[in-house]
Amino acid sequence: MKQGFVKVAALTPKIKVADPIYNAEVICNKLQEAYEKRAKIIVLPELCITGYTCGDLFLQGLLLEQAKSALTKVAAYTQGHDALVFAGLPLEVEGRLYNVAAVLQDGKVLGFVPKTNIPSYAEFYEGRHFSVPKQEIGVVNLNGEEIPFGSGLLFDCSTVHGLMVGCEICEDLWVANPPATNLALLGATVLVNLSASNETVGKAQYREMLVTSSSARLLAGYIYASAGEGESTQDLVFGGHNLIAENGVILAQSKRFEGGAVYSEIDIEKLLLERRRMGTFGEKPQGNHKVISFALQVEETELTRPFFPTPFVPGDESRKRQRCEEILSIQAYGLKKRYEHTGCKSAVIGISGGLDSTLALLVTVRAFDLLGLERKNITSVTMPCFGTTDRTYDNACTLARTLGTTLREVDIKAAVTQHFSDIGQDPNKHDVTYENGQARERTQVLMDIANQTGGLVIGTGDMSELALGWATYNGDHMSMYGVNAGVPKTLVRHLVRYYADTCGNGELEKVLLDVLDTPVSPELLPPTDGVISQKTEDLVGPYELHDFFLYYMLRGGYSPKKIFRVAKLAFAGQYDDATILKWLKTFTRRFFSQQFKRSCLPDGPKVGSVAVSPRGDLRMPSDASANIWLKELEEL
After folding, report:
1. pTM of this structure
2. CA-CA distance, 405 to 450, in Å (whole number)?
3. Which of 205, 290, 291, 534 is the most buried (most CB within 10 A)?
4. The domain defined by 317-634 carries CATH number 3.10.25.10
5. What is the CATH number of domain 2-294?
6. Which residues have a catalytic role annotated?
7. Phi and psi (nearest 5°) for 336?
8. CA dihedral over 41, 45, 47, 50, signed as positive or negative
């Protein structure tokens, strides 16, 4: 559970209907498998000790007594094992029968949670056998011990900060006001559901949607264990559809009809961050509830959940294309509104033949098409200087012409040389002044052309550059609207590729593909034999690493050690540990030291779940210390 990761399991044993003695045996066998995998929260299906499909046999006293005896056996099997276990059974309390989850740990029954919503419609007739529980917290005498009984029970881990578990049973998830809502508001970060949901056409998709949306709405982990093989097929079939979700994402799920078990790790620290961030999460409800404490040993959790190296880019191709279209629309409509508000009819954009300016130009063209403005009102300015190569120059010119914009060339070498003379800068000294002087001259040119044309300067810098501060202050850092400000570098590539694939113009597609194949570079240093000599990723590190660091720092709230841990998994075989650590230190230093550039960013649209705008997601002081973050990295 170190760094907040808790391994959890949803198990479906192959039971026999109305045979608690046999079922206790197979449940214990399943628990042993979960123990060996170091699962700490283990969930079994609804009424698994007897079987869900016992029908009127639930009214038989012998079955109920044997169910309690089997529960005692299962509880004893948990002794000495470091896990919290949920198992379902019918339980008689004061002459009424309840469908309950028994909560077990280290040989003891910690509590009984009754099912709140009892279905008696369609194929369900639970109301024939089971009662709706009272709201009060009561007690049940089991083997001479008084055990808490009630739907408002919560189980709080004293050794893992933030790990509190709430329980609901099957139908409770499907109703308008699920018990999980109050449980989450009371502090439950993990919700479990013991279910016996039968299979009908299309139901699996709906079930998955319910689990996913519940975990998202409640900012929680959700473990759903469903009945499977062994249940009666007299009228129904049960598929053993087990799911584990976290804040709207399915971490693991079983294939239906194959039974077995699913495992994953729920990130409690991340869930706590989400709740701290969302100020409207809700106040603690009034009503009856009881918190029961338990303890787990804190240990290193083996991670099996996926950590994709490109968290900003969907892995599924169809979702990626959908995401690209959505982002391009957000960018274009953001710019469209700015033009409608200002009444401007022209745009000025510096094009370098690189990825960022290419995307900005594509977005501007789309916005002008939406506005019904002629593309020739977009002035595409190429400004060759000391580092410009023929490849990028030709691509910039071809791109501007192919898109139907007005191409304008302003060679800035003479102006920059004069400026160097004015300030006493040796042109042979290729330092930061040499580089930034060119960037600021380009911005001056763009601003003045915008004055000539009555237009807006469209910013090209992306979110990854802003996170690293890889922009010249009052140079490419400045514009009148930054369309790429919310787009990380790894996603810029896919947006341009998507445009190339869907534009339907062979010449445009060809130049876009060559832009994609060009190394990322500001081209501020002279080329070597006509080839780009200054490659950004050689200087500040691979953008795919920086985007990964950025996502998990801001979106996940991960500490540097935790980022390093998951980055090693995500980039295994691609980058060694030393390389990841080197660039993580670079990212951390630059992220803190360069906040002053982000504090005065031009307007620009947020497009995803992470943004660095000082008016939106990142209200960070420019002089915040990075010491505790860097110190943690030095300990690695």
Report:
1. 0.93
2. 15
3. 534
4. no
5. 3.60.110.10
6. 46, 115, 170
7. -60, -45
8. negative
